[in-house]
Amino acid sequence: MAVERTNRDIKSLIGQIADGEIMLPEIQRGYVWRASQVAKLVESLYLGYPAGTLLLWKTDEAAETRTAATGSGQGLPSVMPLYLLDGQQRLTSLYRVFKDHPAAQIVFNIETEAFQNQSNATLRSPKWVRVYDVIGPDADSFTLQMQLRSAGLSIDNAEIGRRLKALEAISQRDFHMEVLHGFGYEEVTQIFVRVNSGGRPLKTADLAMATLSARSPGFLKELEEESARWAEYGYRAVDTNFLIKAITLSLSISGKRTSSVSRLTTASRESVAEGWERVRRGLERVVPLLSEQLLVPNSALLSSVSVLHPLIVFYGRLPADARVDPEVEKGLLYWFLAASGSNRYGGATDSALTQDVNALDSDEPVRALLANLRLDEKGFRVTARDLAGRNIQSPYIMLSYLAAAHSGAEDWWAGGPISVVAEGTDKLQYSSLHPAAQLRNHRNKYSSAEINELANIVFVSPHTAKNMIGNRSPAEYIKEVQTGDLEAHAVPTDPGVLEADGFREFLVARRGLLAGRISALLERFRPSFIDAGDASSPRSEAPRRSLVLTGYGTGSRTLLLAEAQAGTQHWVGRIDTAELDAALDAAASGLDSDVTVAGETAPLAVDEDGITLPVGPFRLRGTADQWRLALKEAFSDALPAADCPERESQVWVGEAEDFLMADLGVQQT
Question: Residue 324 half-sphere exposure, CB side, CA atoms within 13 Å?
Answer without folding.
Answer: 23
